[in-house]
Amino acid sequence: MLIPKNRHIHFFGISTFLCCWFFCIQPVLGQTKKIDSLRLRLTLHSEKDTLRVNLLNELAHAHHVKDTTKATSYLEESLAISEHIGYVKGKANALFIKGKLAAEATYYKRGIVEFSKAVALYQTIDWHEGTAQCYKEMGLFMYNNSRQKEAISYFKKALVASNKTDHTKATAEILYELGWSYTDIDDYENARIYFHKALQINETINNAKGKASCKNGIAVTYSNEGNYPLALEYFNQTLEIAKKNSITRRIMLTYGNLGNLYEALKKYDKAIEFYKETLKLAKETDIGVLSKTYNNLGQTYKGKKEFSLANEYYQKSLKLYAEINDKRGEAFVLNNIGDIYLETKNYPEAYAMYWRSQKLSLEIDNLKGLSASYLGLAQTLIGQKKYHQALEYALKCKQLSENHRFFSTQNKILETLVTIYQNTGNYKKALESHRQFKILNDSIFDKENIQKIAQLEYEYKYQQALDSANIRELKLSRTILTTSQDLEKSRQQYLWAVIGILLISLVLGGAFFFQKYQHIKAKNETILTEQKLLRSQMTPHFMFNSLSVLQGMILNRENAKSLTYLSKFSKLLRNTLEGSRQKLVALSDELATIDGYMELRNLDTEPPFRYTLEVDSTVDTRSLKIPPMLIQPFVENCVEHAFKAHEPNKQIELGIQFKNQELCCTITDNGKGISENRSKRKKGKNSLATTISSERLQKLAKEFGMPGSLNIQNRADFGKRGTLVTLIIPYKIDSTAI
Question: For domain 577-737, which CATH number applies: 3.30.565.10, 2.40.10.10, 2.30.40.10, 1.10.150.20?
Fold first, then answer.
């Protein structure tokens, strides 16, 4: 449950109002001389007129973040004088600042009321700049409360008013905000339309900050959409503009967004690098950035299962959000802490965190945070087996998620409802929720993007190496020309010797570069080989057969049995897909996947297979990490090909031993044996899984620096029936899991 990452951090600010000198000041905190000067002028000007109103408003604005009490006092006097002398613009300006005070305190409803009053006054005097700014701030209120439809409505009203002025920069800012609202509801096509319109204006007026911000927004839409190569391209363009124009803050925020991108790809170490770069650039006054980055670090360490470090960063984030009275940020961090307690099954603490978050979100009408709290409360109550109470929170979460298009929460709550309905005996609703979950989950799952980002990174490194080689070649060519001119008058032979040496250097340099390129190409081929293996793990025949069995159960109205079968099938499919995205998995997880596969096969096989698993006492299945999906294809091969239909006493034995620093796995069956199986296949045709697994083991053996092999024997050679497969599996030991 994350704090929304779309724009990394959002700050409230006043656009330049050219028609009133009050709005021409730059709202920079800490300008003591400016404040002292305003106080002196206010002391000297005691007459209750428009000038004193403007001075009071300026002082209120200067104090509106650090000293709200003084700001409020100045505003009350300003409103009283404006009302007495009939100064409409002064009164509207004071109401505008009151709305901002409410915003800083996260009292959004009160802020909307004050802004609405200001808009009504601005419209009576046709001051479009003020009207546009008020609608923009109202849109920001709604944006920060996840009410994006209302935010879009206010931003469009602001756009209409701004188009009646000649303030193109202010118009670009409103277009930019519209882009973020569409991003937040996953309407990335419309989001990019508004970002590009804002970018075009910023390019026309040569606003470097605006250009960098718009390109960052476009990058975020591609990142959220799963198009990581294009996202990376736009982030790099953002950094180029920011570095060229020394926009330190944009560099800092872009590093944070790059961290978000790699965190989404589960490249946690790389994400941490970018987050720490953000912290290096952040100042002590950048509390919003610091608190958000600490939360992101907490999320990343939680992804790495380092819960103690995650909680440490969450606590830092929570403390900073409390300091600036950002209740929205506090609510999201509390949800994240609750997630840790939920994952470690500390249900009382998890419930307490979610409850605190729910209370804060209700107070400020933070709908996205509220939906996450409801989800957490439902999952916590499930852990305590309080299913009826859990259902109440789950339904609240589902309604919020659907109404406001919170897709990540919607996906999780549908899965949660399946569990609740199963445990309360409502199988019809359980099946309906599972279908909805499957449809939504499939629509947001894109496994091809990891390959794309890897490919783009390799291309980027390749281009860097190529550019570097071209520069070296140019320098060498210049050296040749200079040398020839200097030595032409003296020794002709010496010149040719120098040229010969330089040419040899070029050849050697080219050979070195070509070797490096071949190395990168070999890495890409390894990735493709592994993808071929992963796609071949679960045969289409098995999947089709499983779905056919499930269809038969449903048609026969075997509700309980069909739900059990569906649950086991989806769990097996999920474990297979999750395993395919990891380079190493615990041996215990691999064996659990195989157990799930055999259990599922036995549900529709008559007579069932007699499957046994024997793990030697010297094997620690939690600490041993192995490449995923090496064993399962051979177990599946036994099931599919080793036995005749309806053959009795079908036995499959799986053994794991650890001898002489080698991890040995044996798969034994009492079926037809190799010779009979081969006779039924076409000549020269090998098992796809066997061929690819053999290739993969050879490459893994080189990579791990230890033995890796595959041996298939006919047990008839030993006077027995069936086949024996022996795998020597390369491994690594995870000391933290011991």
Answer: 3.30.565.10
